[in-house]
Known about the structure:
The structure holds 2 protein chains of 2 kinds. By secondary structure, chain A is mainly α. Chain A has 7 helices and no strands. The longest helix of chain A has 39 residues, at 62-100. The radius of gyration of chain A is 19 Å and the shape is globular. Chain B is mainly alpha-helical. Chain B is built from 7 helices and no strands. In chain B, α2 crosses α4 (57-100). The longest helix of chain B is centred in the middle third of the chain and has 44 residues, at 57-100.
Amino acid sequence: MILFDILFELFITFFKVGVFTFGGGYAMIPLITEEVIKKGWTENASELIDFIAISESTPGPFAVNISTFIGFNQAGVLGAIFASLGVIMPSFLIILFIASVFKKFADNKFVVGFLKGVKPVIVGVIFSVAVKFILKSVFDISIYDLSKISLEWASILIFVIVFAMTRVKKKIHPIYVVLVSGILGLLIYGLIL
Amino acid sequence: MVLRLFWTFFKIGLFTFGGGYAMIPFIHQYAVEKYKWITDEEFLNIIAIAESTPGPIAINSATYIGHKVSGLKGSAMATLGVSLPSIIIIVLISAFFMQFKSNIYVEYAFKGIRVGVSILVLNAAIRMNKKLEKNFFTYIMIVVGFSLLLFELLPVIWVIIISGIIGIVYQIFKLRGDDLV
């Protein structure tokens, strides 16, 4: 019964994530962060960032990867399946509906209006997640204890190098960003410090 | 035919790193050029639909193309095909990751990787920002979304629903020719 409850909750949570994600994988991160931390499905924000890193560097849609990851951690293979089914189901149902009855969907004025409001807000929301992740990963603080900020040169150095790299080579694949920052972490924390 | 759908989307799921947009060229190559399941125009239409509906673009396009080729059974097989590689690979990796994450060198690498992921998220926001229309309404919405979530004043879902309603109202006023902004 307990397993059933967990599976059901995984399915419902990721179904919700699937319904409210507009604009691809990254748009999913704010809602996943909120839900997963609220439910205590990761030990801390750092572990969630690790999951995101792995989901970005493995093949397939990011959404399915991250749901499988969290589902597997909560309830093994069954958890992985229920979480992925949850995140897939909304798109599946909506597209079936559009493909069979509502072909002019993308030109509908309500759809156009809805997206006009949602798209810029999502960009702002993703910016806020970026700020929180940077505070956590570079300074190891949250937005509420900014006064405790201390300058750790090692993580700042990694940030500057990797950020410069992605700005020079804008089309760089996420997997290289993960690789380079991993190697830098290993070198700087492992060998120098 | 259904089996070929499954297998094609399985390959697409297996060989594309980096999610939805990386998949578009592959989907075009198989579904339009090789198997002629859909025309170029339908392909563009699918992308427009995928961008205006929630959920991963990979799932959206697999469902649509599957439906076109052989109805409900087709969409189920194509969607299953594109998702299955991820599920298998991630299950294998997470079993592996859980064993090694307490290793000190893995921890060093992940300390660096977390910085890298923050940059990926930051760049995604910058990239999505560039694709937006530039006007007063857009800027306001970005600032509102940013400030509400930075301090967690409202759950993400409510922010999306409310901004969608504001967008619809804005669009209706604009269509009437009133200069709202």
